[in-house]
Write a structure and sequence with these properties.
CATH superfamily of the largest domain: P-loop containing nucleotide triphosphate hydrolases
Radius of gyration: 22 Å
Oligomer: single chain
CATH architecture of the largest domain: 3-Layer(aba) Sandwich
Number of strands: 5
Structural class: alpha/beta
Order of helices and strands: HEHHEHHEEHE
Helix content: 40-55%
């Protein structure tokens, strides 16, 4: 189980992953926060919840171009104002047991490919010489394809070298192209 705002968007393509949203009314959320913070300031608690919701919504839109809370992002949405926690658990457990969410070799392979793509992206971002390169990464069974545009042959070679060193990478298909315009913009890296 992964809990987090982005987990649904990241893992939705994997057929055996069940995406669940558990929610409740604003009034119940305010009540819970007031109890948690040991305060009787309902106005403060509501303002904090609304601020947090706006921040989460903006981040989800920025990262994934989705509207946070859109029920289409989930396989099931449960409202704890009307459904008990025990009933929510039962509903989720039942959904996980359905054939639509059965794990398959193909769904595991997709998850493995996604994990490798993420490890490659992290390696590129953690390396000072490649962190500003904006590339598209495709991974399939250890083979990693890099697509995009770089400023120099050195940058292209460095990206390939960093990717080749990532555990799980069997080969790199470096399709990075060199920028061909003669004039570089003032904000470019060189």
């Amino acid at each position: 189980m992964l809990r987090g705002w982005g987990a649904t968007c990241l893992l939705r393509p994997v057929p055996h992953v069940v995406c669940v949203r558990v929610t409740r009314s604003l009034a119940k959320r305010v009540e819970w926060l007031m109890s948690h913070l040991e305060t009787d300031d309902a106005q403060f608690a509501e303002a904090e919840i609304r601020r947090s919701d706006r921040a989460h919504a903006a981040r989800m839109n920025e990262l994934f171009d989705v509207t946070w809370g859109d029920p289409v992002l989930y396989d099931i949405v449960l409202n704890t104002d009307r459904v008990s926690i025990d009933s929510c658990v039962e509903q989720i457990r039942e959904l996980c047991g359905r054939s639509e969410f059965a794990e398959t070799p193909e769904s595991h392979a997709l998850l493995d490919n996604m994990a490798l793509e993420t490890r490659v992206r992290v390696a590129l971002k953690e390396n000072a010489e490649t962190r500003d390169i904006d590339v598209t990464i495709h991974a399939k069974q250890g083979r990693v394809e890099l697509l995009g545009i770089v400023l120099s042959a050195e940058e292209r070679a460095r990206a390939e070298s960093v990717v080749a060193a990532v555990p799980g990478v069997a080969s790199v298909d470096n399709q990075l192209r060199l920028m061909t315009i003669s004039r570089r913009f003032t904000y470019s890296k060189t």
